[in-house]
Specification:
Length: 346
């Protein structure tokens, strides 16, 4: 895998390894044409037989990009701008994983690398199997659309630019653990664009994930903060923030279509952890449709419950949602949640 090392004079991510070629479309330019042009500009070679791989949206604190990924085989020799790039060299894919673990690659390349490895195994998140571009533009629930777009920053987030759109899932597309929450928090995921980041519920969840080796210990507060999940993917049953955190039954049914797509594209899921009754019931309804007559119609939510009526499907467990309200009312304690999470994960 050919990578470039960004010059130390760069303002963003200096000295880190990045994709060998990357760039932006010119007005009216097709992605494949841009890829050829960028190869010539950055490596001094015109590629032949570009292979299209997948598309996705990359979101950070400073940009949102629609990314199209191609690959091509070229042996060089390469030439590059020494003021922009310090090195260009080939890496074994396993060595790239070591670079990523040492934080020596750019965040966008680390994300790209995970997608590429998932694509090699047939489980990548790309438009045909996970229509993220359509999800973030969803306008099917007028009440949710009006509410999410009305929210503005307050307190420490007074000047923040809010996401204010449906929130897609994130994490490891090859993960065996799926965590399903209720909906984005008004000043949490609705601000950051990632489930469970930026609010109190997320702080407790990410503490539990770190304790069980499922995250890199970053307390997810904003996009671009370096948060990584291992063997885990996180979604919400409802993709838009609802008023009073109470989605209507019709809104839950509409979003169940997105949830079904997310569960279907995560081919290695063995365990689904549902945080709260709404998330649990949404997953159980889906399982009832997928496995008719297998006993899902008799499943009811309780804290710590676990069910697996069919042999070839994932197990589904339920926990109280780690919300501030549940902690303040005493329905849940910090240690109680950490203990229960450890038990259902183990």
């Amino acid at each position: 895998m050919l990578l470039q090392k960004r010059s130390m004079t760069k303002d963003i991510q200096p000295g880190r390894w990045d994709t060998a070629v990357g760039g932006h479309l010119m007005p009216g330019e097709e992605p494949a044409v841009a890829a050829v042009r960028e190869c010539v500009e950055e490596l001094g070679l015109e590629p032949k037989d570009l292979e299209y791989l997948y598309e996705y949206i990359w979101v950070t604190d400073w940009e949102s990009e629609w990314v199209t990924t191609f690959r091509v085989c070229m042996n060089g020799p390469f030439s590059w701008d020494r003021e922009e790039i310090d090195q260009v060299r080939f890496w074994d894919p396993d060595d790239v994983a070591v670079l990523a673990a040492r934080r020596e690659v750019t965040p966008n390349f680390e994300h790209e690398y995970l997608r590429y490895r998932a694509w090699q195994r047939g489980v990548t998140i790309h438009r045909p199997s996970y229509p993220i571009y359509d999800l973030v533009r969803c306008m099917r629930c007028p009440r949710l659309v009006a509410f999410r777009e009305s929210i503005r920053g307050k307190g420490n987030n007074r000047d923040a630019v809010y996401w204010n759109r449906p929130v897609p899932g994130f994490g490891d597309p090859e993960g065996s653990v799926l965590i399903v929450g209720l909906a984005p928090g008004a000043h949490g995921a609705n601000r950051t664009g990632r489930p469970f980041t930026g609010d109190a519920a997320g702080e407790l969840l990410f503490r539990a994930l770190e304790d069980n080796g499922l995250s890199n210990g970053v307390n997810g507060r904003s996009r671009g903060d370096g948060l990584r999940l291992f063997d885990t993917f996180i979604v919400n049953a409802v993709k838009c923030v609802p008023p009073d955190n109470r989605p209507l039954p019709q809104e839950i049914r509409v979003c169940s279509e997105w949830l079904a797509v997310e569960i279907a594209m995560l081919h290695r899921i063995q365990r689904i952890v549902c945080l709260g009754r709404v998330a649990f019931d949404a997953v159980v309804r889906m399982m009832k449709d997928r496995y008719p007559g297998s006993g899902w119609e008799h499943v009811r939510f309780s804290h710590g419950c676990g069910v697996k009526p069919e042999a070839d499907g994932p197990s589904v467990v339920g926990l109280y949602h780690p919300s501030r309200r549940n902690l303040n009312t005493g329905l849940l304690t910090v240690e109680g949640f950490l203990t229960a999470f450890r038990r259902v994960i183990g």
